[in-house]
Design goal:
single chain; 573 residues; alpha/beta; ABC transporter transmembrane region fold; Rossmann fold; six-stranded mixed beta sheet; four-stranded antiparallel beta sheet; 19 helices; 12 strands
Amino acid sequence: MKRLLRYLTPYKKECILGPLFKLLEATFELFIPLVIASIIDRGIGTGETGYIWKMGAGLLVLALIGLVSAITAQYFAAKAAVGFAASLKHALFGHIQSLSFSARDQLGTSTMITRLTSDVNQVQSGVNLTLRLFLRSPFIVFGAMIMAFVVDPGAAWIFAVTIPILMIVVFGIMFWTMPLYKKTQSELDGVTGSVRENLTGVRVIRAFRMEQEETSRFVRQNDALTKLQEYVGKISAMMNPVTYLILNAGLIVLLRSGAVRVDAGHISQGEVVALVNYLSQILVELIKLANLIIQMTRGLACADRIANVLDIPSGMESGAETPDGETEELVSFEDVSMKYSGAGAEALSHVNLKVKKGQTIGVIGPTGCGKSTLVNLIPRFYDASAGTVRVGGIDVRDYQTDALRMRIGVVPQKAQLFKGTIAENLRWGNPDATEEQMNEALTIAQAYDFVSTREGGLNAKVEQNGRNFSGGQRQRLTIARALIRKPEILILDDSASALDLATDAALRKAIRSMEGSPTVFIVSQRTASLMHADQIVVLDEGEVAGIGTHEQLMENCPLYQEIYYSQFPKEAA
């Protein structure tokens, strides 16, 4: 939790004023039993009606001041808690964005979602309750005990015995449940991951008629979470009945002792009522304190989980280099190997490749051979395990990350659009793009025709994930988004798989004729998309099986021949 307290720093004033107003409310509350005792002994006992009305008015004033103090304290506590949660979410989201792909893969999407939502909300509730009750409840508990000694030291020993016993119960349950709440949140990660997986893969689940199996898997995970929550809940639920039992036992002893002392003339009836009120106040406040401790336990468990994410290093430190001058080789791979975290084998092994400015490079091979891994090393989405990847003669690890990625346009395998308009999505590539530049990018990406006929044109709405567009339209819009920044290096990672051959050919022709002649990396399973590339890299289980032109590979690369003839019959070829 200490790691997160700095996000409360801007709310120092609220963190001080909130508890202070709660203490003010508590102070007035401690005087109420004395006023009631005075009304009973002097007003009712002697029949002074005027005194009863006067002291009754005093009670209303105390209640009004307490109400105003409580509302003010709630305002400051809520402001601090909500502001703290907002700052924490911003910091956590920003840190997650800074994490390398390797760190994110290790952490898991469902875990990050839980940290940003459920965990932060639990910590926010904990901060709110702490500011309101952490000082107030102990103040009233010990204040009531002191007031009991003031009223009647002879009966106050009951308070001195009852309160320590209650403290042992409350803190014992707290230490028992804290590790269990951590485990509960971990189980929640699993359920969240299962729900997310089912929602994103619902079409595949239905296509293979796996609804029953996935439902059963979810029920098993949910039942495990439910049982754990019930177990923790039962332990936490023990707090109220046990504290009530102890306090009511103390109340019975107090009434018995009070009756004897009243009969002996040591204290008055009003003082007995005051002592009962003080014991009742202790009961109420200890229940509040118990609930506060339960919430604090949850909040601390969640705070530790959030802090663990914030403590994860980015994994990729940005360099200091920026592009400086021209080199003959724009991109080069020098004995590059790559292994994913936790993987058993290398995804790439000893890759050597030199690419000149303006060339088109095709990358092909069987599924899982490392094609995407190869091109992901260029914008430094991942770092090579061994060897060096250079862009413009500079090791990508020495670049300023922004400077490197400004030179590169990437179109990933999955066409991802964001809720907004077509223009807003295109401006991800260039925030200052004009309408003319957007239309030019759409034309090159073969998307201008369907965008111009859509209602609103560039201002047409895009639903979340672009679900109001077809797969081919989404791919063309993502290609336009990458082209609009006019990159030196354009990476098309199997990003034309949903396009027909004619549109694919027109797209490649338009890219080749672009001003500035970008260096293009095309990852594809289609040999037709790569046949005219200057170099084609054939990968097989992470190793280079061949590099050359289409004609050269048809002569000396059996794997490329196999892929080619699987798509074009020998007679037609």
